[in-house]
Amino acid sequence: MRLNQFQSSVLHVIRFLCSQAVLISHLIVLFGWHYRTLISMASYAVLLFFILSGFLITTSVKHKIKSDPQCGFSHFFRDRFFRIYPPFLAALCLTFVLDIISFEYTQQIYSIKQYFLNLGVCALQLQEFPLAVFLNEHYMIEFFRFRYLGSNMPLWTIGIEWWIYMFFGFALFYVIRSSRVRLWHWAVLAFLALTPLYYLFVSARMDNGLTLYWFLGLLIALGFREDINPKNQTGTVLGSIVLIAGLILFPKIGYTNSVLLFALGLTMLLNGANNNSYHLPRFHRISSAIAGYSYSLYLIHYPVIVFIVTMFPREYDGNYFFLIYLTVNIIAYGFGRLFETNSSKLKQIYENYRSNPN
Asked: Using an 8 Å Cβ cutoff, are 38 and 249 in contact?
């Protein structure tokens, strides 16, 4: 199952808006401005990111299985690894460099050993890993005080998504689609379930049930059929209205109600625009370009903002706000072109090496 140009463009625009909302919200927080609605945009955007993630991963896997019934967990893992890790590791290195320069500039005392430890922890996606959090909080074992790297606070969500991916992929390929489930499969699945279960029942800097939003995206994908309602214009229009309402009404009706509106609108719009006659190549090119660095923007925006306000302090006015906003977007765009866009090339190089190691 593949999305058509219009459907992909809609998702691109949503990704772009969510990434910009996170940037603006965090910039307002670091400026110390008190705009509650704008500050709350970041948390709501994270919820929408989780829904989009669940939807896109599921649609991708459905298409992969349909086109290649022999594909397994190794294929799924490679797809996720090369999509997530090249820009993620580059973001860790950038954060490390920016933080060390800032520490030296401000003569802040820091432990380089602890920083390297945190770097390794984040590289393994163990930032705020539930088992480590439990051992630290209940048994005061400082070694298990795993945290995000330095100034890059938003990295905690990447670890959650990574382990949800692994749980979903392992459950699908080694349990649901397996002809014989062995004991070690259940043991691995139980370990991989730690993060999804923890963020289902325990809050994660926001309301409980963060995992549910990812699986809501999965349900939307399972209910999406490309062979029904070929071009339902009424569904497309109504879906767009409901979707927009879900995007903007969260300050009035709360996160949960807004998410449900968003999910309903997305479902209506996607199923209503199933026909390829919605052919808008210019819209698709523009939406692809503006969303193409959304992941990179999320990965690096916070340490870049912290670095700028630390190294170049001045009055927190509107001009400085816009200057930082524009600068972060430009840096993230270049970062995305360098690391995010080339992720597929790295995967292809690896695949070529595996097929012809000599």
From this structure: no
Residues 269-296: pLDDT tens digits? 888 777 655 667 888 889 999 999 999 9
Rounded Cα distance, 41 and 302, in Å: 15
- Residue 114, exposed/middle/buried by CB under 10 A (0-12, 13-18, 19+)? exposed
* DSSP, res 69: T
pLDDT in tens, 127-169: 878 888 777 777 777 666 667 788 998 998 999 999 999 999 9
pLDDT confidence band for 115 (50 / 70 / 90): confident
- Cα 321 to Cα 327, 329, 331, 356: the distances in Å are 10, 12, 15, 51
Give the Cβ contact number of residue 206 at 10 Å.
14
Q: How many CB atoms lie within 10 A of CB 356?
A: 7
CA distance 284 to 117: 42
Q: Is the pTM of this model over 0.85?
A: yes
From the CB of residue 116, how many other CB atoms can be counted at a distance below 10 Å? 11
Helix (H, G, I), strand (E, B) or coil at 24: helix
Percent residues over pLDDT 70 in the chain = 92
The two tokens of residue 145 are: 């005080």
Measured between alpha carbons, how far is 177 from 232 in angstroms, rounded to an integer? Answer: 34
Phi/psi at 71 (5° precision): -65, 150
Cα 101 to its chain centre, rounded Å, is 28
